[in-house]
Amino acid sequence: MYDLALIGLGRVGFRTLDFLLKWKPDLRVLGIDCLDRSKTIVERGFNIDFTRICESIDIVKHLEDVKLVATALPSSIVYDYVNTLINNGFNVIDVSYIGFDPYIFNNTCLNNNVTYVPDAGFAPGFSNLVVSHLSRELNELESVEIYVGGIPVEPKPPFYYEITWSPEDLIEEYTRRAHVVFDNEIREIDPLDKIIRIDIPGHGVFEGFYSDGLHTLLKNIKARNMFEVTLRHPGHLNRVRVLRELGFFDDIKIDVDGIEITPKRFTAKLLSNKFSQSSPDKAILYVKIRGGGLTRTVLSVLERTVGSATVDFTSAVFAETIIIALEKGLEPGVHPLEDLHMYYEEYVRRLREIGVTILET
């Protein structure tokens, strides 16, 4: 019997294992990936089992007697896995950047007596938890502002950014229409239509764009105005605009010398090759909430001299959510992190343990 099956052993998946096996050394884990990760598992000293699976329809027969399944997959394939798992009666914790409404699975979860926790990462994820925590202290929310980014400490031209996560999902941030709330109305807007300048206390001035990270907050938090802005160093977003306008982010196949490929996949591979992380980064999450004449803020920052702060922040939240689900148990249904507000201090303790500074005012 396994306590956990972890599907997706990329950067976030492996770093999550680091935290899980440090915090819970006796955890019995089955790792699953489409690529053969067995050599890396041995090299990193993980005492886990591994199996190679590439299709969601093949997953269920390998999960007998698994208590919990966690998924860390690209947004393009995660729906099929989540759908298969929930319909076959598995509890699921997911860190992927999903593009669907997770509440479409709520009735299935209730009928199968299972839990689905979407967006169990940095943002959306910990950002939801912070908003839920702060909003419980204020009445009639006027505004919820989320500013978030994983950015290089020393930006280098021409891109002023380095890839710390799935390059295809990074491109998705620039193409997926952002859902925001203005004057109590949910609106869909082009993420690159407006470049915003924001001064993050103690960290300087950044550019930002409206991103589609509110997700379940649109349903669970009522505010007159609410939005998420993703932070970038000045200069980056104008370059991204040019790439998008030229069609480099298009998802329709084109023929190149008899070979069909989507510009988006080609660009993702090119960006990964040219701009993979080679220098330290920092993860910034600044949440500001106004209501009842009061303003509350939480500034969370993780900076690394080696490795990836963004991956570490994401993976630590993911790992802590898995531990809470295993140890505390969660009610059946769909439960994003704003539903786990009662565990806010436990998340804060874990994050401070890995070096995150969290300042609440």
From TrEMBL:
Gene3D superfamilies: Dihydrodipicolinate Reductase, domain 2. It holds the Pfam family Sacchrp_dh_C. Residues 121-355 form the Saccharopine dehydrogenase-like C-terminal domain. Keywords: Oxidoreductase. It comes from the Archaea. The keyword DNA-binding does not apply. GO terms for molecular function: oxidoreductase activity. This is Saccharopine dehydrogenase family protein. The lineage of its organism: Archaea, Thermoproteota, Thermoprotei, Desulfurococcales, Desulfurococcaceae.
